[in-house]
## 1
Amino acid sequence: MFATTLQDFVQNFNTFESEFMSNQIEQQSEYAIAAVVYADEGDAAITALWQAVRRLQQDGWRVAGLLNPIDNEGKHSNSELASVADNRRFSIFQNLGNHSSGCKLDAGALAAAGSVIREAIAEGTDLVVINKFGHAEIDNRGLLSEYLAAISSGIPVLTTLHSKYLPDWRSFSGGVSGELPADTDTVLDWIKRSVKRNLP
């Protein structure tokens, strides 16, 4: 069962090479994964995902995952993640001081946030959304195990992606992922075509 594989994956996370990611995703016979691609700060991309999620939830879909909160000015917060199912908040940055050049990402806090996705996969969900695919995932960290868990369970995944990471994304997804603009209707259209369930 994948639960055992995922547990082993998490325990031995740092020993896996990038080839593992590609092999895992290429071995899936049926999966749907797409990224909303942006070249700016990513506010519009995150907003498009939030709007799509709320629309789906209003229509009775089970949607799980984590997105950066959006403030009243349409700006997203990199330091926080919110569960799209129940709005639980997770602070994911460490306070390293003003002069620190180290990575601010708090691995422990991110793992706690990732439990939202893992629980939803175990319980069953129609769609998983993840705030972004970035340098942490490329380095075999971040929420990579959550991406793989959803894919291995056959659950469609939506995320955001800075355009500079497109080559890494295409390698990870086996070149079959959707690459979408920051437009809610386009995102919903991809979901309608990719998920085995009809929008009302």
## 2
Amino acid sequence: MTDAALQLPKTVVRRRSPFMRKAFPYLLLAPAVIYLLGITLWPGAFAIYRSLFTGKFNWQNNYVGFENYLVLFGDEHFWTALWNTLLLGSITLTIEFAIALLLAALAYRSPWVKGWRILFMLPMLFMPSAVGFLWKLLFNDGRVISDLMMRVGLVDSPVDWMAHIWNARFVLIVTDVWQWTPFLFIILVAGLQGQDKEVEEAARLDGASFGQMFWNISLPLLRPIIAIALVLRGIDLLNNMSAVAIITQGSPAGYTETLSYFIYRTAFRSFDQGYAAAASVLLLIASVILAQILVRKFFRSGAET
């Protein structure tokens, strides 16, 4: 060994203390956690606090305790809005999931799908308000859909989509299905493409058909992905307001008014913010319950299987 090598300074390796080694991952996550708590926990806590008061403006607040909730449970408009939300949400989610799963099963092996996934996401890139105005123009203002139906002989006269309950609901369902089916499709395709191909190859060697492989192998392996997709879309459907506000505004007779639009109308048209806050708290509880039901239905632990 030369004298130059002997004169090189020795590097000192500093080891973190056991406490710092355990705390370091939490310190890295702390900024993101603080940010998420700031934009979720604080508004939720303020909504709970505000629901205990009544009054149109902050300087006119009167503490009433749980009176807003008691009045809400006896409000016919609230229950109608809740029923509309569950009905429209369940129908829309079922249609979106069925279409997305069918398209994903037919297209997930195609290399074109892998390279051009962005094309399937184009409807999602539009603002929900813009999509609402687009379908309002096609169905109601411009009567484009009605004219096309008359040309092919499906109807004899123009259709007033806002005059009948299920016609108006149909418009809202079509609007949401057009924009958000690609969301479920992309998630399901990604889940199918990420599965182990050796399992399918083994089933194919045993003589299984494509339908048998998909139904008995691919679909059960996709259950956690399905749960995540349905929870995300289900919660988003509970908060569906833009299409209702732009296209129907709850008409006819409030049969298309969702719970989110009910909260908006109560808070910013009637200016009863405490009453709207109580409704928003119940909406939050409904979202948590829906998420728990879907997660418990589709997730299975190793002990349960």
